Amino acid sequence: MTLWGPILAGMATLKEMQDGTYDMDDLADMLQAISVKNLIEKRTHEK
Predict the structure, then answer these.
(1) For residue 2, pLDDT beyond 90
(2) Which ranges of 1-47 would DSSP assign to H, the alpha helix?
(3) Fewer C-beta within 10 Å: the chain N or C terminus?
(4) At a CB cut-off of 8 Å and minimum separation 6, what does 25 contact?
(5) What is the rounded distance in angstroms from the CA atom of residue 32 to the CA atom of residue 37?
(6) Structure confidence at residue 29 (pLDDT)
(7) Cβ distance 16 to 22 under 8 Å?
(8) How far is CA 8 from CA 4, 5, 11, 14, 23, in A?
């Protein structure tokens, strides 16, 4: 996943990602949250 992950997930806007509102640690946290969410959804659908 890239910079676009949080934007497409509605967690941030492109402007926020570009203007320094979020730093690399924030980006990593958002990407991890998206990954966990996707894993939970996958497991839910497998049941």
Answers:
(1) no
(2) 4-8, 14-19, 24-46
(3) C
(4) none
(5) 9
(6) 97
(7) yes
(8) 6, 5, 8, 10, 17
List the structure tokens of 29.
């946290």
Q: How far is CA 25 from the centre of its chain?
A: 12
The pTM of the full predicted model, rounded to 2 decimals, is 0.85
Decide if 1 contacts 29 (C-beta within 8 A).
Answer: no
pLDDT tens digits along 37-46: 999 999 999 8
**Distance separating alpha carbons of residues 15 and 6, to the nearest angstrom:** 12
- Span 10-23, pLDDT tens digits: 999 999 999 999 99
Please report, as a single letter, which amino acid is at residue 17. M
